[in-house]
Amino acid sequence: MCGIVGYVGQKTTMDVLLGGLKRQEYRGYDSAGVALITEDGLIASAKKSGKLQALVDEVTAHPLAPGHTGIGHTRWATHGAPSDVNAHPHVVDGGKLAMIHNGIIENFAEIREEMLEAGHTFLSETDTEVGAVLLGHLVEQTGDFRTGFAQAVNRFQGAFTVLAIHQDAPNVILAARHNSPLVIGFGDGENFLGSDVAAFVEHTHRAAAVGQDQMVEITPEHVRVTDFAGTPVPIDEFEIAWDASASDKGGWPSFMAKEITENPDAVANTVRGRVVDGRVEIPELSGLGEDAIRKFSRIILVACGTASYAGQVGAYAIEQWARIPVEVQLSHEFRYRDPVITPETLVVSISQSGETMDTLMAVRYAMERGAKTVSICNTQGATIPRESDAIVYTHAGPEVAVASTKAFVAQITALYLLGLQFAQVRGTLDDTAIARNIAELQALPGKLEEVLTTGPEIRQLAKWMSDTPAVLFLGRHVGFPIALEGALKLKELAYIHAEGFAAGELKHGPIALIDHGQPVFVVVPSPRESAEIHSKVVSNIQEIRARGARVIAIAEAGDAAVLPYADEVIRIPLAGPFFEPILAVVPLQIFAMELADAKGLDVDQPRNLAKSVTVE
Ligand code: AGP
Q1: What is the pLDDT of residue 21?
Q2: How far apart are CA 592 and CA 585, in angstroms?
Q3: Are both 461 and 443 inside the same structural domain?
Q4: Tens digit of each residue's pLDDT (9 = 90 or more) over 315-369
Q5: Predicted confidence band at 78 (pLDDT cuts at 50, 70, 90)?
Q6: How far apart are CA 263 and CA 396, in angstroms?
Q7: Which residue, 154, 337, 354, 373, shows the most beta carbons closer than 10 Å to its own?
Q8: Whose CA is nearest to atom 6 of ligand 1?
Q9: How far is the CA of 304 from the centre of ligand 1 (A)?
Q10: Residue 581 and residue 409 in contact, taking contact as beta carbons nearer than 8 Å
Q11: Closest ligand 1 atom, CA of 305?
Q12: Whether residue 192 sits in one domain with residue 73
């Protein structure tokens, strides 16, 4: 999962490349590099390990000669440690050709042996350099950049998006993709390539996604897309729905801080346009057909990480509203369990990026076995929605921080809308219940705004707990996946052990973890709407308090039952049983961010992570 950018045109190429890499740095940030064809027809390049700023410093101190054709790459290492020599671009063939790559060339070992036998040598440990050397070899053999490129991409196996420039073709970038994302940006006398539209959104809103096994040639004058055999394919252009400022920090200390405050808009914008005359209407679902919706006998939600927890929250609501059995499967586990899939199975993928390889492979597996598929996705034109039968886009706007926040609540919102539409079609909820839940969804943004005001008290709590070695999270029913999400946020941001449990599971083992002073967050159900499980959770709080736990309860306004047993109470507004847990996640997002900040850690780009995991 790396960030890729390509540019041909009259702008200052270095500025376009560095700007595009900056907006995609969340895709990978352990090294970065650029290469361009200078005005005297040679390839100049620079690359540095470390974050993008190291490259910016390098090219500031040692400027490259100007040029009008260039490629750039920000890396998340797969083969070969983060280092200058392993960074992309890889410049080969006597400095005549440069290549960058996102993915894994799985047959790189056999190609490497073949190239060694042909007399080539290697500088790095990367699969990418092997690909670049093969490309250079084939260009030399065929005497033509385009022919050699087509032959090379037909040799690669695994997952790859590659961009290449050659000094013999000074105004051309060749690109190809297989199982890895690539989008085109169309300009006037200039054209762009990127891993996602963030690469060029500041220059153009005209874009198109490149399909599986397609090659692209861009020059300042034209864009040509073909399949791997060289046959032209149609280009489906779309308008990018957000502008560059949406992917700027906008004065916030971090993207995560900004995006947490955008939780309310993420819900409001995902609902917008999908409630008509008191009914849920998701136009994108029309591709499924009401008859199919009536016939579905099972729904499987496939996702990873935070998206899978959104699925767990949504599963409760969809099953209760639409009366369809719903299960959540981790994408990377799904196809290895040989699941029972029939034409009456609906597989719903949940993915902010729409490029998570594990989830893409799960969707393909399900479709090959006859399931209908719906993609819940936050990225226009991404691979997973393009390959699914129907799409429900979340409209959370670009989510740049690696740790997902606003996309999470938007995913739950989309799942709730889907559940309500299915309930309408299947007649499993009456109009009153439909109206009540729609009202809850429409009230959610205002209540989320109210929860955001708890920020200062949570920041103080995080400061007090900045040296805690471990934190536990408890929840029941819909609060259980919220506890899991709270734990994941803390793991990926503050790098400390954190674990979420179903509160009822405590006595079956985890309570042994409770020692004096052990911090435990508890997502408390509503005493009004969920009295039975509310009282059980209060009992759980008493059990852990009796064993020395330090309890931080997240409870609705006015819930007095928790007061005698909680060290801290974070209040959330009243809402329905499926809606309060969405409010409860925001204090957990803020806590994780503030604790990471208190520890001086990088909130937006945590170590070892990347925003989009495009390798299995
Ligand atoms: C969440 O904070 C993490 N960044 C990670 O768990 C993420 O949700 C997961 O990798 C799925 O990504 P996707 O939604 O883009 O498919």
Answers
A1: 93
A2: 11
A3: no
A4: 999 999 999 999 999 999 999 999 999 999 999 999 999 999 999 999 999 999 9
A5: low
A6: 8
A7: 354
A8: 305
A9: 6
A10: no
A11: 6
A12: yes
Does the pTM of the predicted model rise above 0.90?
Answer: no
98 strand-pairing partners: 91, 165
Whether 20 lines ligand 1, by a CB cut-off of 6 Å, is no
> pLDDT (tens digit, 9 = 90+) per residue, 297-321?
999 999 999 999 999 999 999 999 9
Please tell me if the CB atom of residue 383 comes closer than 6 angstroms to any atom of ligand 1: no
Residue 362: CB within 6 Å of ligand 1? no
Residues 24, 50 share a domain: yes
Q: Which residue pairs, CB below 8 angstroms and at least 24 apart, start in 513-518?
A: 513/470, 513/472, 514/472, 514/544, 514/547, 514/548, 514/549, 515/547, 515/548, 516/548, 517/548, 517/549, 517/550, 518/470, 518/472, 518/544, 518/548, 518/549, 518/550
Q: How confident is the model over 570-592, as pLDDT tens digits? A: 999 999 999 999 999 999 999 99
- Spacing, Cα 359 to ligand 1 middle (Å): 10
Out of 230, 245, 260, a domain closes at 245
Distance CA 543, CA 546 (A): 5
181 within ligand 1 shell (Cβ under 6 A): no
CATH of the domain at 203: 3.60.20.10
Atom number of ligand 1 nearest to Cα 489:
2
Same domain, 358 and 232: no
86: confidence class by pLDDT, cuts 50, 70, 90: confident
Supply the pLDDT for residue 1. Answer: 64
Distance 306 CA to ligand 1 centre (A): 5
> What is the rounded CA–CA span in Å between residue 374 and residue 349?
6
pLDDT at 198: 87
Q: Give backbone dihedrals phi and psi of 298, rounded to 5 degrees, phi first.
A: -165, 140
Q: Does the pLDDT at position 150 exceed 80?
A: yes
The two three-digit tokens of residue 33, written as one number: 């590099």
Cβ neighbors of 573 (< 8 A, separation 6 or more) are 447, 450, 451, 556, 557, 583
Average pLDDT over residues 182-202: 95
Question: Token pair for residue 264?
Answer: 């309310």
Domain membership flag for residue 497: yes
Average pLDDT of the residues of the chain: 94
Task: Give the closest residue (by CA) to ligand 1 atom 2.
Answer: 403
Q: pLDDT tens for residues 24-64?
A: 877 777 889 999 999 999 999 999 998 899 999 999 999 99
Residue 229 belongs to domain spanning: 3-245
Domain containing residue 496: CATH number: 3.40.50.10490
Give the distance (Å) from ligand 1 centre to CA of residue 394: 14
Which atom of ligand 1 is nearest the CA belonging to 492?
Answer: 2
Report the residue among 301, 352, 485, 491 best suited for mutation to probe ligand 1: largest number of ligand atoms under 8 A from its CB: 352
The catalytic site residues sit at 2, 611
Q: Does 481 map to a domain?
A: yes
The answer, yes or no, to whether any atom of ligand 1 lies below 6 A from the CB of 307, is: yes
Residues 404 and 270 both lie in one domain: yes
